[in-house]
Design a protein that fits this description.
Layout: H1 5-26, H2 36-54, H3 56-64, H4 73-96, H5 99-122
Helix pairs in contact: 1-2, 1-5, 2-4, 2-5, 4-5
């Protein structure tokens, strides 16, 4: 797969999510970010946008179809586990409204982004499919 424009856009979403979290944690009083619950919504929306833009679901489906190499499959599994952890922390924080949980969810999002970016860099070479007329780029 290799690094692409999708990774660059996903990086911008992750940086924005980290900025939202820092605003709430440090009390920067940004508009609409009055408490940890508002920051949770921001991190959830931006993190989901980063995940979808970065190609996580598309890569997973392509790997199941054997259209891409599965050389870094364990990195993908680890990133998926971090994604579930991040989502779980954010859902819990809807009810808890905790700055600490927001900070931990943001750290998990950042680690997931690092792992996914490394995984995309490892998957730099395209895999030629055995199915006639199909080749992934």
């Amino acid at each position: 797969m290799g690094l692409s424009w999708r990774d660059a856009v996903a990086t911008l979403f992750v940086v924005a999510a980290a900025a939202v979290s820092l605003s709430v944690v440090n009390g920067w009083d940004w508009p609409f970010l009055t408490d940890a619950r508002a920051g949770t919504v921001g991190v959830l929306v931006l993190g989901f946008a980063a995940s979808v833009t970065g190609g996580g679901p598309q890569w997973f489906v392509a790997a199941l179809r054997r259209e891409v190499s599965t050389k870094g499959m364990w990195l993908s599994v680890f990133a998926s586990a971090l994604g579930f952890l991040t989502f779980g922390l954010l859902v819990i924080n809807f009810f808890a409204n905790s700055i600490t949980l927001l900070a931990w969810a943001t750290v998990a999002l950042l680690v997931m982004w690092i792992v996914a970016t490394i995984h995309h860099a490892i998957e730099a070479r395209p895999h030629v499919s055995l199915t006639p007329g199909r080749q992934s780029a």
